[in-house]
Request: fold
Amino acid sequence: MTLPPEIAVLRPTLESGLTELALDPALSAPLLDYLALLARWNRTYNLTAVRDPAKMVTLHLLDSLAMHGALQPGALADLGTGPGLPGIPLALARPDVQVTLVESNGKKARFLREAVRSLGIANARVLESRAEAVAEPGVYRQITARALATLAGILEVGGHLLAPDGVLLAMKSGTTDEEGRELPAGWAIRDVHPLRVPGLDARRELVVVGRA
Reply:
């Protein structure tokens, strides 16, 4: 698609960030198409509080992609994905991962279906549902949830989706120790990986949680 000038000008920043994350700079093309679609829909449907496309590059695209190296091939459920974060950037970067975008809000689910269709994302599908109502127990190798508050809260609504050896991959910013003490019985933190998000001066870590 033809990008609006305010989106096209962001290509060098995005390509630089992708290179820093050890991703192919050519991913900037589908990612900017997604960003243009999100910015256009956001003007009408208020899908995200971030309105500035330049900030979206850092806070949405690169922040989502910072965890790409921790994904395993196979099925990933992105719970409460909103406008597709981190699920759509991850699906574009990792075609070996089958991403299910779980979102109960109707207008956000409509946007997700349009994004998957118009961008031709063959390894993503949309489920308009609350996470706890998804009747696919044990189907997923990994789940993530960028918008949900705590590790315990994510497991409460989505833990049933994980295969026996499946893991929760959660991006956190320094609350890991406290949240680890609140995990439900039978779950434990397996690992914590520090993350660097290009252009973001803030602490980020990826917490891996599995069955104890």
User: Anything to note?
Assistant: Helices lie at 5-8, 11-20, 28-45, 53-65, 87-93, 106-119, 151-158, 176-181. Strands lie at 74-79, 97-102, 124-127, 140-144, 162-172, 187-195, 204-211. Residues 28-45 form the longest helix (18 residues).
